[in-house]
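Bench log. Compound arrived from synthesis this morning; before running ITC I wanted a structural hypothesis for how 6-O-phosphono-beta-D-glucopyranose sits in the protein. Inputs:
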Amino acid sequence: MNEKKNNVCNFIIFGIKGDLSKRKILPSLYYLEKKNNIHDNTCIIGISRSNWDKINYINMIKKSLNIFLKEKINKKIWIKFISRFKFCNLNVYYSNNFIKLKKILNFKNRISINYCAMPSNTIPAICKGLGKEKINKKSSFIVIEKPIGSSLKTYNYINNKILKYFNESQIYRIDHYLGKETIINLLAFRFSNILFLKNWSNQIIDSIQITVSEEIGIEGRIEYFNKTGQIKDMIQNHLLQILTIITMEVPIKLNINSIKEEKIKIINSLRRFNFNNINKNVVLGQYTNNNINGVNIPSYLEEIGLNKNSNTETFVSIRADIDNLRWAGVPFYLRSGKRLKKKLSEIVIYFKTLPINLFNKFNKKIPQNKLIIRLQPNEGIEIKILNKLIGLNYKYELKLTKLNFNFYKKNNNEYKTDAYEFLISELMKGDKSFFVSYNELEESWKWVDSIVNSCNIVKKKPILYKSGTWGPEESDILLKKDGRKWNK
Ligand code: BG6
């Protein structure tokens, strides 16, 4: 295998004190350190606008690692890790401040990765500051997080601001789902097995469900989430990525451009929503309080602060349609929410039943074949196939039996590489294969705008659901109307 080596970097984290940095970026960097995956001369530079000294920052990093690592901090790794850090107090809105950053950077024989771990409306200011101090040269890259903007208009605005200082080739757009083993495996699963490659269309597939559910609520991200909501936090990016990978045509090659072209065709073919079809196809929800196993779970409104009113959705389910020859007539049911019954990401593919079945007269109802791709937890693939019941009393009575494959051994504490760890390592190698292109996001905003704008036109409000359930009953009705049920 032709594995690229990690470059020597200035790894600059804008927003080092923020939730994303504490929860994901810092732990991932620590694990990369543990695996000797960071070049010895790489420097990590933490930026925030507070008036902190080095000790404050170091304490904060240690505290975050203690909370978010899946193991105890190892003293030897910690010493090497923390010795890489430099810090800079800087307000990104004052481009004059960026001189402070320039002064502590060494540019010789290294690339600079400018990781914006801050809300996307700060990106233009960050780019301007970097541009002012010429930290935007060819060997400098900018990394931005989803959701970029809050509509097609704001996405384009931010993008145009970035393009004033960086070329498209210098921009890395992260969607951490693209760094998950099981998502990368979707490509292998679909395009290396003739068994599925040839059976992947409306000829034999009846419907597809994609569920990404979480038990947690908004984890203190009040301002961010209340402005964003579940559609823009999850559907616009993670669920659309899964949907496109599961439905796109075979790319010519396994590189970012070929894959991107196929994904864009799918997003282009997604039927748009309007005031006529929105209520029939989209359900919004918001969680209320509940007592689960003796623990009081607050409602969304309580979490964002008593007395506040909000129509932000914490749950969404959608029936989507792809109007192309391969998928015409196959409904795609997407569902994602906070404070649901379980943390789970899965794709369930239901196959059609045979038009004429020799076994009909021995069985009241013959169930559909089902393929379940479990993205998390219990990563794996499960196929439900029909077999006859065994025993003297049975001749041709059928039952669904399960063929199951687990990615990881059960009950084994095998370490699973986190998606961020993988993507940060790719950033350090300068490989863009697992990042999102400009056009893909442009197209996905068009589709998402059609949902959000239609909801606004019909004044659609979220329906309340109890924490710890599968969302509002209307989400079940969405499928029931089509004679279907969510996979249980
Ligand atoms: C993030 C969202 O992108 O993904 C969060 O902003 C969500 O709201 C998280 O909790 C879920 O990621 P994962 O990897 O835990 O499924």
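What the model suggests: The CA atoms of residues 279 and 389 lie 43 Å apart. The two ends are 41 Å apart (CA to CA).
ITC booked for Thursday regardless.
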